[in-house]
Amino acid sequence: MPVEVVTPKIRGFVSLSAHPEGCAREVQRQIEHVRRPASEWPGGNLLVVGSSAGYGLASRITGAFGYGMDSVGVFYERPATDNRTASAGWYNTVAFTEAAREAGLAAINLNGDAFSAAVLEEAMEAVRQIGPLDLFIYSLAAPSRTDPVSGQTYRSVLKVVGQPVTMRTADMANGAISEAVFEAATDEEIAGTVAVMGGADLERWVDALLAERLLAEGARVIAYSYIGPELTWSIYHHGTIGLAKADVERTCRRLDARLQAEVGGRCWVSVNKSMVTQAAAAIPSVPLYISFAYKVMKELGVHEGTIEQTERLFRDHIGPGRQPDLDEEGRIRIDDLELRDDVQAAIEALWNQATSANVAELADIDEYQEAFRRLFGFDVPGVDYDQPVEIDRPLP
Which of 95, 117, 102 is nearest to 51 (CA)? Predict the structure, then answer.
């Protein structure tokens, strides 16, 4: 493929292009943030399902360069074609794999539908190559899921439960504030969302790992979740996605009992902070909230990105020899800084004051937009975007 100058092609909450050098530099920044000398690595084996971006990618990076863990990553990404760049997650995985192998770590990649029986079988074989897992992180989000047994396809929806809800939202391109109406989900839509985003697939993976004896003694299983602030509860925590997340928690409690009995292991849900992600960008009101949260948390000195959050999760809760602090529901809460009373009070005050005329002053919209573009390798410091680059980067 010829080299080309890659420019952003962003349509709403989707980017049709990604910059390979920008993605690689962002991966390297995360690596350097968590890197410890190899002499301090305790080692171990890690599987991440949903490993190519966000918290899943940060987990694979932290496990590898903070702890020396060999890893298997499962993801669903797009390679480059003659007229289109690869997806950002593809470039992220290429950069991670090259760095991990250069450091002497095993890094096995599986690109495909994690909901399928074929990918699960391939993953079991990949795990056999590195050995029984010390840590399994489930960080998968998708709009649909085909049940590998029944063949039925389910689709998730972002809707409220009960009565329609009206909430403030903003066009993050120009800051214009308006009202968004969230429709109430039908029973079928609720069931479909739980089938996609709930705990069924997590349980399928753990069942397979236990059956194949691929979980080490004391293995830990972590499922990532999100609750968010009360400001957004009507559309998230109490909506269709929230019901799916509640199903994940129930599943984790069942799996926790099984893991303790069979391998002396544990299963926990980690509730993470609000972050700029492609999924979050698709939810009206949430980008506006995040732009306030980033501003307030930076001013108070408590802002964390995905790599900082994940490093703290490993260091304080799930790393070797650590026992997590749990809330009353048995969850790990690394959203604790975001949900501090002073942080939420400051965000709510800005939320109530904001208008189209003043939102640019009250919210960190520029940072939100830059953070969104960085997801795809753009606006990354040190990258010359006027230079042509090779867009075909095969997985090593």
Answer: 95
Residue pair 90/100 in contact by the 8 Å Cβ criterion: no
Q: Bridge-partner residues for 109, per DSSP? A: 73
Please state, in angstroms and as integers, the Cα–Cα distance from residue 200 to each residue in 113, 206, 263, following that order.
Answer: 15, 10, 21
Q: How many angstroms from the chain centroid is the CA of residue 73?
A: 13
Domain 9-149+194-284+302-339+377-390: give its CATH architecture.
3-Layer(aba) Sandwich (3.40)
Q: Enumerate the active-site residues.
A: 236
- Quick check: 110 and 74 in contact, CB under 8 A? yes
C-alpha to C-alpha distance for 222 and 56, rounded to whole angstroms: 11
- The rounded distance, in Å, linking the Cα atoms of 226 and 237 is 8
Question: What are the structural domain ranges in the chain?
Answer: 9-149+194-284+302-339+377-390
CB atoms within 10 A of CB 280: 20
* Tally of residues, the chain: 396
Between vectors from CA 283 to CA 385 and to CA 294, what angle results, nearest 5°? 60
d(CA 106, CA 110): 13
Identity of residue 31 = I
Query: Does the predicted TM-score (pTM) go above 0.90?
Result: yes
pLDDT tens digits for 371-391? 999 999 999 999 999 999 999
